[in-house]
Design brief:
Elements: H1 2-5, H2 32-39, H3 42-65, H4 73-94, H5 100-110, H6 116-143, H7 154-184, H8 191-214, H9 222-240, H10 251-257
């Protein structure tokens, strides 16, 4: 139970264009230099940590299904995976501080959206996301014993915040579904944009599954949640991964081409 409360989630904040919006001819830089460039960004490091955090959760879930005996190798592996998952969750929660500022700054801009339905959807998504992050900070300080527990302990407060994050991702899914329907009725070809909507909607649905489980809103299984979290984390990592820069042709090559 405690490990669920420590689980962290991908925060939907302004970021560089996702891979779906990159030109198709631009490949990812899969070299060691590309990985180093990914890790120089705080968001990149966070998504890599999230991938391993949920991979360890999947290991915990699948190990639990086997009901390992105390002292067995599988039982030891399950305990090690749970420890790694919890520590990664705590580290990611610490580095989440101040991520709510860009979200709060973007809320007034929602009021300028002309379509009233789009405005309400965007406003609900941003407000619930900011609410989640601020409640999460309160729960974090309760875990540090800086704030008194009150009616809710640090774990209970964090689970309350996760319910708002679940709602935020559900609303984001509705926004992508509405956008997809609008693109479907467009006269010109919007296949690439529709595919981007499908990927985004799929990601938000998986996060709804994860947060519903972790907030105890609707519990499924650690194995399922772990796999879903690893998938969404992989999507986030690819969105942060730098693209391979094309080198300009050398002067000698230009001379030979003449």
């Amino acid at each position: 139970f405690g490990s669920r409360a420590h689980a962290q989630h991908a925060i939907r904040i302004p970021r560089p264009p996702s891979r779906a919006h990159r030109p198709s001819e631009m490949a990812l830089d899969l070299s060691l230099d590309g990985f180093n460039a990914l890790c120089t960004k705080a968001e990149g490091r966070d998504k890599v940590a999230r991938f391993f955090q949920y991979t360890f959760r999947a290991i915990v879930g699948f190990s639990g299904m086997a009901a390992p005996k105390t002292g067995s190798s599988l039982h030891t592996m399950e305990g090690n995976a749970r420890t790694a998952m919890t520590q990664l969750a705590g580290a990611r929660r610490t580095h989440r501080w101040c991520k709510e500022f860009p979200v709060l700054q973007s809320i007034p801009k929602c009021l300028s959206i002309k379509d009233p339905v789009d405005m309400v959807i965007e406003l609900m998504q941003k407000v619930s996301l900011a609410t989640f992050m601020m409640i999460d900070h309160v729960g974090h300080m309760k875990q540090w014993k800086i704030l008194p527990g009150g009616k809710r302990s640090g774990t209970g407060t964090i689970q309350l915040g996760l319910k708002f994050f679940c709602f935020s991702n559900f609303v984001a899914f509705l926004a992508q579904a509405k956008k997809f329907l609008k693109l479907s009725f467009a006269e010109d070809d919007k296949s690439s944009e529709k595919m981007a909507c499908i990927k985004a909607a799929f990601k938000h649905l998986l996060i709804v599954l994860q947060t519903a489980h972790l907030s105890l809103l609707y519990q499924s299984h650690d194995a399922l949640v772990g796999v879903a979290g690893a998938v969404t984390s992989s999507m986030d990592v690819m969105a942060q991964w730098p693209v391979l820069q094309k080198k300009p042709p050398s002067p000698d090559a230009k001379e030979k081409a003449k």
